[in-house]
Q: What sequence folds into this?
């Protein structure tokens, strides 16, 4: 059940092309407005692109040059949105039985199938409730069962946990991990844990374009886009390779450890380093060779025994006593320092 997609939506400035291999889950990541939901809508058949072609396991979902447009209900795709959108007048069992019923199963058989799926998502005990008597998390479990009961060839999930109380998210993520295992799926998410635990591959979008894609662990370990670095919790500076460093468009030379195989003088490259490797000073530090940036503290964020100090472009993790000693607060001017040995430089 592999998906091949190429699509352009001109008025939203979205232009993408990617594949999802059989049985794999791809996470679509990217900042707000980058086009993730647009891509899902195109695949689901809710939105007609201006150009492009998509096939699912060889069947054409659309081919605009050839004039083919398969309507949403004939695509074999199951869409799970942020909100469960259950039929309010049907009880849970009949909500889930809806898919099998509409493909011709008898009432009894459809209800059997529905019960099987409700068990899969740990919601069998809710079978005779009305949607109005469900919590958000319970309703979303039922929505997952309803989508799966229709036996989709491709599952599309648009931030399925974004509307849920944070306390129910870990259990829901476990359920999704179980039911998506071995299925072909695309999940839109902002959460690094969703990417790590649910997706084999990630596709990172920005401004309607794909800026990087690859195996989840590769992208999160060696991000090449600011967005992927952000969700991986890493600092990233971009520029051109120069000597053993990266020269940013602002003229700053960031010294690091270049990956000799990919980094050649002048290529577009990134310098990537952990906030834990960054020290914070009130005076410009001298001494051992280090990269030093002047910056203004924008935000302080507690992280266990550390505090993440965010500036416009970079972040540093320091201890609480350091925050107190330096009097760090939003608006304070600081110098951030990172040793060249802590900066990985690779082509972008
Ligand atoms: N119904 C619509 N009509 C016209 N333009 C739209 C519509 N929905 C979204 N857009 C525009 O299309 C672009 C992509 O939006 P889209 O919702 O696909 O992004 P997204 O990555 O899913 O964002 P988010 O993370 O905020 O949900 C944006 O410029 C947005 O303003």
A:
């Amino acid at each position: 059940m592999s998906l091949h997609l190429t699509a352009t939506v001109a008025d939203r400035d979205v232009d993408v092309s990617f594949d999802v291999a059989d049985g794999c889950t791809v996470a679509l990541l990217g900042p707000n407005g980058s086009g993730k939901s647009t891509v899902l809508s195109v695949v689901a058949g809710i939105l007609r692109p201006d150009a492009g072609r998509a096939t699912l396991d060889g069947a054409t979902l659309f081919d605009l040059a050839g004039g083919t447009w398969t309507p949403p209900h004939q695509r074999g795709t199951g869409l799970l949105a942020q909100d469960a959108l259950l039929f309010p007048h049907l009880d849970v069992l009949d909500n889930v039985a809806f898919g099998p019923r509409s493909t011709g199963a008898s009432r009894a058989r459809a209800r059997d199938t529905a019960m099987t799926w409700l068990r899969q998502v740990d919601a069998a005990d809710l079978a005779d409730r009305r949607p109005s008597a469900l919590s958000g998390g319970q309703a979303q479990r039922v929505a997952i069962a309803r989508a799966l009961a229709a036996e989709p060839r491709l599952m599309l999930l648009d931030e399925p946990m974004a509307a849920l109380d944070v306390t129910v998210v870990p259990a829901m993520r476990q359920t999704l991990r179980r039911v998506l295992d071995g299925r072909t799926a695309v999940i839109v998410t902002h959460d690094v844990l969703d990417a790590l635990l649910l997706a084999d591959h990630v596709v990172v979008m920005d401004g309607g374009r794909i800026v990087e894609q690859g195996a989840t662990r590769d992208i999160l370990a060696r991000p090449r886009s600011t967005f992927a670095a952000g969700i991986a919790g890493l600092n990233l500076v971009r520029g051109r390779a120069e000597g053993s460093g990266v020269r940013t468009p602002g003229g700053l030379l960031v010294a690091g450890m270049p990956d000799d195989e990919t980094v050649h003088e002048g290529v577009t490259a990134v310098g990537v380093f952990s906030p834990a490797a960054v020290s914070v000073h009130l005076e410009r530090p001298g001494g051992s060779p280090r990269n030093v940036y002047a910056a203004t503290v924008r935000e302080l964020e507690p992280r266990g025994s550390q505090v993440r100090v965010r500036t416009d472009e970079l972040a540093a993790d320091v201890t609480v006593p350091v925050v107190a000693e330096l009097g760090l607060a939003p608006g304070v001017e600081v110098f951030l320092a990172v040793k060249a040995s802590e900066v990985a430089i690779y082509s972008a």
In short: The longest strand covers residues 235-242. The pocket of adenosine-5'-triphosphate is lined by residues 12, 30, 32-38 (CB under 6 Å).
